[in-house]
Amino acid sequence: MSNLVRVTINEERCKGCALCVRACPKKIIELSKTKINAKGYRPAEVTNMEACIGCTACARTCPDVVIHIEKD
Amino acid sequence: MAVLFEKTKLLTDKQFHYCPGCHHGIIHRLVAEVLDEMNLQGKCIGVAPVGCSVFAYDYFNCDMYEAAHGRAPAVATGIKRAVGNDTMVFTYQGDGDLASIGTAEIVHAAHRGEKIVTIFVNNAIYGMTGGQMAPTTLIGQKASTCPTGRTEEWSGMPIKMSEMLAQIPSSYYIERVAVNNTANIAKAKKAIAKAFRYQMEGKGFCMIEVLSTCPTNWGLSPVEAIDWLENNMIPYYPLGVYRDKEAE
Fold first, then answer.
1. Which of A30, B133, B151, B168 is the most buried (most CB within 10 A)?
2. Looking at the complex, does the CB of residue A10 fall below 8 Å from at least one CB of chain B?
3. CB atoms A68 and B18 under 8 Å
4. What are the strands, taking DSSP E only, across B128-198?
5. How far apart are CA B96 and CA B134, in angstroms?
6. Half-sphere exposure of B27 (CA within 13 A, CB side)
7. What is the extent of the structural domain holding A36?
8. Is the pLDDT reported for residue A1 higher than 50?
9. Which residues, in sequence order, are bridge partners of residue B171?
10. Mutation target vs B (from A53, A60, A69; most B CBs, 10 A cutoff)
11. Range A30-53 average pLDDT
């Protein structure tokens, strides 16, 4: 069964603090190695959306409230 | 399509000016979510402090007021007594604001049993002004005004506001929480919701102390700062309920 959770990170508002990286129980979030946003931060990105269990720990830990999570 | 998590409408779209990893953002969200869930948007007035959270009035999507440094409880007293018990009045203050210049105001607001909620963010340092030692700075902790670390001999022991205010007969509900992990974030939200409920029921003075990191002024990364908070702050500032008159 394919995973239907969709995590959307507002990359322009992300400050790259990595608290979501720390909070994710599946260890599927990391700071981007290729992108830098207009603020000069490396935004967080989900590396393997299929593995996401939709626990929302990342969103509830994010100090800038930039994570939105939906499930089909 | 089910939404598992979205930003509450009780926060405005303005971006937080806080440093990366600062816990103010998490605490703002918890307060805003509780206001939203309790349908208090048109029935609450918040009072912002001086300090890093001085712009809180830009972030909460409800009526807000800006008080002079440390005087938020006095301003909230006036507002509450003018608007009456149908309106929930809260202050949002840091430790430099509440535990230093505003100590008299918070102590007397508690003594009078003012029907307000204070959200007290304790990060053990002066953030906005550049990391000076606060009354809450821990022994051994370095700050710009104590570069070799705070000592008991020179500065005394860090002030424990929750323990102190819990001794005041008119205090109704005092709890210390932290937002260092998702379990504690859930507990913090529950505590804020309880305090707001007590206010809507016309009960007395409530304060929720929230331990917070200050990665920039502690000189640590946001993740290291959480470890520092867990290893140093929580042992000296134990989490828990210090006063709950309803439970007594």
1. B133
2. no
3. no
4. 171-178
5. 6
6. 29
7. 5-71
8. no
9. B205
10. A60
11. 96
The answer to whether A26 faces chain B, any CB pair under 8 Å, is: no
Q: Which two tokens stand for residue B164?
A: 């102190």
Does residue B194 carry a pLDDT above 90? yes
B39–A contact, CB cutoff 8 A: no
Q: Tokens 């409408």 belong to which residue?
A: B9
Domain B24-244 bears CATH identifier 3.90.45.10: no
* Cβ–Cβ below 8 Å for A71 and B185: no
Nearest to B141 by CA among B124, B119, B163, B160: B124
CATH of the domain at A50: 3.30.70.20
Give the total number of structural domains in chain A: 1
Q: What is the pLDDT of residues B114-127, one digit of tens each?
A: 999 999 999 999 99
Say what the ipTM of the complex is.
Answer: 0.95
Check CB contact under 8 Å for B223 and A19.
yes
- The β-bridge partners of B92 are B119
- Pairing assessment for the beta strands B240-244 and B171-178 based on DSSP bridges: antiparallel
Q: CB B25 to CB A64 under 8 A?
A: yes
Could you give phi then psi for residue B10, rounded to 5 degrees?
-80, 0
